[in-house]
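User: Hi! I'm a student and our assignment asks us to look at how structure tokens line up with a sequence. Could you show me two examples?

Assistant: Happy to help. In each example below, the sequence comes first and the structure tokens follow. Example one:
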Amino acid sequence: MQWRTAGDRIQTLLDSCAAGGTAAYERAQQLVREVVGLYGAGLERIMQLGDPDLTERLATDDLVASLLLVHGLHPHDMHRRVCDALDRVRPYLGSHGGDVELLEIVPVAATGESTVRLAFTGSCKSCPSSAVTLELAVEDAVRAAAPEISAIEVVTAQPAAEPSVIPADALLARVRSNGSTVHANSWHPVPELAELAPGEVAGFRISDTTVVVCRVGDLPLAYVDHCPVCDDTLAGAQLRETLLGCPRCGTQFDIVHAGAGPDGTHLDPLPLLLRDGVPSVALAEPAGAGA
């Protein structure tokens, strides 16, 4: 069960109780509060055991950490949680030629929330769509680690020296001050990706989209199954070190640099991250789909 959607399911059930009248709805809400209070008290008792190793293990488990945050029991402050979240996505950012630095966390006195200010370094070579993949990776990681953050801001970086390189300040250009994004995306768990061996290439059909996944060392990378040179499928493609060769036209694409190919061509990268401990791919929702 994906715990990130549990809150939505609980709210749906509560809303359905409203059909039984005000009294039924209030009883359902009270039941939820009692259950939340009960497991909150249990978590507090566990955290009071004073075992440093256990505390750290609980704090770094995605599910438990989210529950500790709900009850104000997480042992790490916001700055450390954000830093740890950025560290977890740095290997992915590096695969697209970029990195990120936490500049500061600014409290918003009026609301009690905070704004995170980030600066990107490095660049995304030859691939405009890689900006979206980095945006999703960073925003998802930061908001999961620190849900009390109200906004993510990006400070303009120095222009890149190479004219063919996308400036680093464009990496999160689509992140708005309220934390929403221009592109609507849905995450799809694909547990089979965990079985992919280093150097292996596999194809997956995910929500009507064919995806090619390559694994370089410990890093899996996902791309849309489409060769921009011959306009054909990449089915049967082989990986040699970091180059993925199209089996039809023979074009080589550098998959650790956002799928860069010759003459400015590139594959279309897709965000692939561990979510709830399960490899998951983000795909754009059709126009008019849910937010």
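Example two works the same way, sequence first and then tokens:
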Amino acid sequence: MKVLVMNCGSSSLKYQLINMENEELLAKGIAERIGIEGSFVKHETTGKEKVVIEEPLNDHKAAIKIVVDALTNSEYGAIASMEEITAVGHRVVHGGDKFSSSVIIDEKVQKAIEECAELAPLHNPPNLMGINACKEILPEAPMVAVFDTAFHQTMPATSYMYALPYELYEKYKVRRYGFHGTSHKYVSDRAAEMLGKPLEDLKVVTCHLGNGASIAAVKHGQSVDTSMGFTPLEGLAMGTRCGDLDPAIIDYWMNKENLTIAEATNAMNKKSGVLGVSGISSDFRDIEEAAEKGNERAQLALDLYYQRVKKYIGAYAAEMGGVDAVVFTAGLGENSFIARKEICKGLEFLGIKIDDEKNNVRGKETVVSTGDAAVKVLLIPTNEELVIARDTKNLVG
């Protein structure tokens, strides 16, 4: 059984083809600049040379057709024909409170995804475009939707409700949803396997630290809290997002700078976070380099970021009544030994102790805590595509 995993953005499309008999990655790639001049597809079949296909990609349908052509190409493809694609698993960012698990896509599901688009206007519409394009190009293959929000649907009301007039929840479903669910699920499952313990017996804090970042409290295999909220803007300071802040600042800021709501929202999403504080970049490598040269704002951005992550780890340990493991994943979490060390510094009272030698590693599954640490610290590269493929296989059979 071969599953094609699709992750559609507004002008890009990431894909993987996975053989689910042995979970082997057969091919992967990305289509970029969809609908923009200079579009192309980067394609790589396992064991073969990478290729770049420069073609006009006027829309998602054109991009997916090029992807299927690349997968079936006699020279650099991975399969003989598109009939070998058994099913397609789609990443869908927002399922609201309508979906607590992955589902086979039918008209009713598509309508629900469309209804959730107002909660994720930058993500759900291109997700839908990818679904519709795949249905046209691969009409015989069943489609499955895997939601970023689904894993967090186990949160209790005390975690997902805002202290706002209750009518906002009743009328408009204003509540915390959380994101990066497939990542948090994958790394918490994998942590249990690495530690040789049942997930049902563990309390795990999972730290997905990329340009977008979130932390989850996973108690006995279920998400009981997470840092992102109604939108991905809440929670940690991120690459360009502000994270938690006093909401009164927004009105004050708008009046002082004569900003519209759209301008203020754009600034909080795209001009804030470590970019806003450092004034340098949203890339932590650039900020670390500037801090090493004595740039005080760069150092402040790093210290602020580490402190926010540390605060959430402590809060979730308290919320779960203890913690057995802390997991670092995603771009920064997987690749920055400095970030892992600084975040864990001061958490020794919880039983967290980093082994500097073990921690000096990038992108490799490993335990980075000392042998005698009561709380294990793990580095686990995330694999959201594999979660999507597994859910697709389980549903399609």
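Here is something you could point out in your write-up. Residues 296-320 form the longest helix (25 residues).
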